[in-house]
Amino acid sequence: MKKIILLILTVIFTFGTVGCATNKETTNNAAKEAFSSFLSGDTTLLGAQVEEKGIPDFQDDMLEYEYTYLDVNEDGVVEMLVQLQDDPCGYNAVFHFDGKQIICWQSDSVEGACRDYPLKDGTMVRQYDYSGTRSYTLFRYNSEGEKVDISKVFARDELIYSSDTSKCPYYEVDGTEVSKDEFDKKHKLLIEERMLKRDAWKAI
Question: Staple 53 to which of 58, 72, 93, 104, CB 3.0 to 4.6 Å?
Fold first, then answer.
């Protein structure tokens, strides 16, 4: 009797797992279709966000954009990331499809010293370079498209202004001062070794 019950539970679990996988695949395909239509010039699913978020025309022949698909909020469904070709400083964006419309979570072409870029597991990095300093904030998006910080590494490599009395050089990991060697190791572990490869990006 126990064997029969175990067999029934195994069958139910197996079909349930297959069903979930199939649903995710269907949802991912629908998201990619919506994104593809958007990249081709159809902004219907974005509505007023095009003007509100300052989303550029990705069909503009004057600039070269590229995109990739990654799950940046860990729900099993991909988002679309767009940037100027190998230049997230120039422009970077994240788009989410909720099944009915495309929602822009990030669109930035203004802050040249700051840029967002993805790591290969969908974790995002916001890098900010200013006045001899570098800061790297690792984060994920939640289901509402809000930024949830995971870790931060910071370096002050030089003092640009003679009036600046800040400690230099100075290195920090998650609020704690560390040596340069410790900073370099952490930066390599958190970012360098997890960078998305160039061939993951596709030209628009």
Answer: 104
